[in-house]
Structure formats: C-alpha cells, structure tokens
C-alpha cells in the first residue's frame, strides 16, 4: 500500500471520529514544507457562534497563528499535507491513538493503540486565562482605569491588561533564573503611570511572598504624586515613586533594573546604571534610535546593505537593530548573558523588542570577542560612537 493510500486511511479515521463525536485532538509534525519557520499544527474542536469548527494552531518558531475551518476543509487539507509537508500525524479519540508516519525509506504506516479514560474536551473557543495578575480585587487597577470597581477589565484597556500579564509572565521566568533572596531591590526607570510597576510589586509581594523594595523613577511630578497616592491606598508599603531622571538616579544595591520605552539614549543611561550597580538582571525595551541613525545617515558607508538602507523605512529598522545589537554586545563585554526577544505583539505596540541581561562572570576571551564585534559593527555602518559604549568607557 503506497503513501497516498495510507494517508487516505488515516484521513478516513479522522473523518469518522468527527462524525461519531469521538474526536479529541489531532497533531501534525515532522514538517518538511516550504515555510521554514513552521514546526507543527495542532487541531481541536471549537464552537464559534454555536457552529462546530476545527481550530488549527500553526506553531511557528516565534509565533502562533490560529485559523478555523470546517470538518470538510480540514480533511481536504490533510489530503494535501500528509506524506508531503507533514510526515507524522497523531489522532487522539476517546478510545484510541491513531498514528500516521512516513518513514525515511519512503514507506508509510498507520498504527493504532488503545486509550482509556478520555473525556470529551471543552469546545470553548477562548481558554480560561491562567493569569499571574488577576483583575479581581485589585484596587490599583481600578485607580489606574484598567478595570471598573468590580474588577472587570474595560473594553478599551484589554490590550493594556494583556500587556501587563505578558510582562509579568516574562519577568517571572527571568527572576527564577537569578534566584534572588527574600529582599529584592527593583528600580523601574521611566515608570510613567505605573501600570507595570504596580503589577510587578503585586506579583513579587503577593505571589512570590518576597519582601520587595520597588522604586519607580519618573520626571513628571503629577504622575509621581498620583502613583504614590495609589500605592498608599493599596497598602503597598514597599512601592514608591520618585521624581527625577534616569541619569540622576542612584542605583546602588539594585538587584533588578528595568527601563521600558526610555527614549533614545535614555535606554543607554539605564543599562549603564545597571552595569554600575552590578544588577543581577537588566531589562530594557528601547524606544527611538536617533543617535545611531544620524551617524549612519551622515557617513553613508558603502556596504552590502546599501540596497536596503537607501530606503528610509529600512534605514530606520536597520538603525534599531544596530543600536540594540551593540547594546547587547556592551552587556556581554561586562559579563552579562543576553537575550533579545519580542516583548509583546506589535498589534498592541510597535515598541516590542526586549533586551535582557543576566549577570554572569567576566571572561577575558569573551570580553575581547565582544569588543571586536563592537568595533567591526562601527566600521561597517560608519558609526563614530555608541552612547552606551561612551558611558562605559570601552
């Protein structure tokens, strides 16, 4: 029996499970198609406007995409995918597992294995969120106009509330990596209205049961006064806000230094404060990259990227990547392990790059390598200096 016949045998099992109600879930793997970022597809039953559908989650390396289809559409797509794009598929029903596999030899097989104790899955399209910060009983969220007094998130602040939880989710894993003691000193540079600062204090104090000292630094006096009043009303004794600038703040003893959307070289000021303090964790989400872009535009160095940088929008993006890439290298020069990843989908905010530095040990060889990479980047793009490099004196 050839691959197509075995694929059709498997598809018949999928079709039958959907018809008799025994379908639990389906997964496709061992992808060999044209989309280099696609890894798997996961399929489950959902109800959308009271109509049964199959929800397909396309799992890519850096994002998930979900699409909904009818049973007929799904079986049609399986006919195109199995044995070509996807070499492995597993169907779970209420009573058995059915496994399709195309082997390196070119032979295809379909195997069955009994399964017991399964129940029909929920058909809810929206899974209950396992949020680290719940809106219920959070007076500060109401004061900050994220929720109403009953803890219901306003329709126009849904994105902001998702951003808060995504932020805390990221920081929770990073904090576990540095294994801080019970007392934790955190500085949030450019805290603004304090949405994320309040949520972080709440998480550290009430979820992790730590004894945090969290300070928000903000140059707008009205926001400082507002946040201090809300912190007092919430009984957050370890949370305070100070009026001032990043460059003027004394970060001595700070374990975690955060700067989200500090404009242009203010991000460099914050990173350097963290380096000076020997902070165990430095987390920044840069905003604006004017200092490096002006130098790239001024010198117009002829290089292999000229076909891109002659366009303004590409030049802007290139300046962002170069600026943040050198920031990561400076952190590595000082012994930090770095990560650069998406903070939150740009559907919610265009400021979506997070640079994370976790303190490690100085290594002369790694330090020399980082310094050489910084120099090479400057030569390639015609950069006289990077503000963080100048602050650090390297």
Automatic annotation (TrEMBL):
GO terms for biological process: methylation. GO terms for cellular component: cytoplasm. The keyword Protease does not apply. Residues 159-295 form the Methyltransferase domain. This is SAM-dependent methyltransferase. Pfam families: Methyltransf_32. Keywords: Methyltransferase, Transferase. InterPro entries: Methyltranfer_dom (IPR025714), SAM-dependent_MTases_sf (IPR029063). GO terms for molecular function: methyltransferase activity. It comes from the Bacteria. The keyword Methyltransferase applies.
